[in-house]
Write a sequence for this structure.
């Protein structure tokens, strides 16, 4: 899952805090909580990671 989050533009400070509840497999989106250097945002996966 770490690679999929990185491909969705997740940063190391965000990936550690991402939980299953932050994933939307049907919409192929993930909620990123942000970090000290990034704002919270919803990202669309560029690959079909939800299968």
């Amino acid at each position: 899952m770490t690679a999929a989050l990185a491909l969705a533009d997740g940063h190391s400070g965000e990936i550690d805090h991402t939980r299953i509840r932050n994933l939307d497999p049907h919409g192929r989106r993930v909620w990123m909580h942000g970090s000290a250097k990034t704002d919270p945002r919803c990202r669309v996966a560029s690959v079909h990671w939800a299968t």
Observations:
- The two ends are 11 Å apart (CA to CA).
